[in-house]
Design brief:
Strand content: under 5%
CATH class of one domain: Mainly Alpha
CATH architecture of one domain: Alpha Horseshoe
Order of helices and strands: HHHHHHHHHHHHHH
Largest sheet: none
Helix content: 55-70%
Distance between the termini: 67 Å
Length: about 240
């Protein structure tokens, strides 16, 4: 039987406070774990806990869904560490569509400490898209400084372009005023999607984006209808 099944059985037994069942479950879990480890299935250990040993992404997801306080405490402690290798492990586990939501949720729960590792994984051929989703969810006020880097990613990494551009738009607001020049530079990009998102982002910055007025006037005559519409909207928002 799959290690996942035995681990779930073990946590359930603990929750039911059945010592005999827990012992049997633990023994079966260890036997299966050893078999999978020999086959190279288990990933690099995430952490060690005396009561709730969490050795890989599978067991972390199980512990997160187990109501017993001990399991929740163990999973919370692991999530708080936010080790870069752990994040990659979780994303690889989530490559299976059936596990993707649980994997994404685990990474998002790590919070801001996961930003740098996720950003570094955007260029990974296998994990880039899976890193882009949770990164977009985690980013928020205070992360405006990432706007230039996100624009750079949008230009250089087509696979995650949409995540990067959506994140730029999300971070654009009054606090993004220091990055108006970076956003304005995107108005002349060869990619219409980049031009459109930069126009829309400047509209969100509002009057503080006045320095981009000249570039927006040119964008208002762009060959792409979407770019023209967003550029005109931005000009109205900044009062130019």
């Amino acid at each position: 039987m799959h290690t996942l099944g035995w681990s779930a059985f073990y946590y359930y037994a603990r929750a039911r406070k059945s010592a005999w069942t827990a012992v049997c479950g633990a023994m079966l879990s260890l036997a299966c774990a050893a078999s999978y480890a020999r086959a190279g299935v288990l990933a690099t250990p995430l952490a060690a806990d005396t009561e709730y040993p969490i050795r890989d992404a599978r067991e972390l997801i199980i512990a997160m869904g187990t109501p017993e306080p001990g399991a929740q405490k163990a999973s919370k402690a692991i999530l708080e560490r936010a080790d870069p290798a752990m994040i990659e492990n979780l994303l690889r586990y989530g490559r299976n569509p059936r596990r993707r939501d649980a994997s994404r949720r685990a990474v998002v729960l790590m919070g801001r400490k996961a930003i740098d590792p996720l950003f570094a994984l955007l260029g990974d051929a296998e994990l880039g898209n899976q890193a882009g989703g949770p990164l977009f969810e985690i980013l928020g006020p205070g992360d405006e400084g990432l706007i230039p880097a996100l624009l750079d990613c949008a230009r250089k990494l087509p696979a995650v372009k949409n995540y990067c551009l959506q994140a730029v738009f999300k971070l654009s607001g009054r606090k993004a005023a220091p990055y108006v020049h970076a956003l304005a530079s995107g108005l002349t990009d060869s990619d219409a999607a980049v031009r459109q998102y930069c126009s829309a982002s400047l509209a969100r910055v509002g009057k503080s984006a006045a320095a981009a007025a000249a570039a927006l006037r040119k964008a208002a005559k762009d060959p792409d209808a979407g770019v023209r519409e967003q550029a005109r909207k931005a000009l109205r928002r900044i009062g130019a």
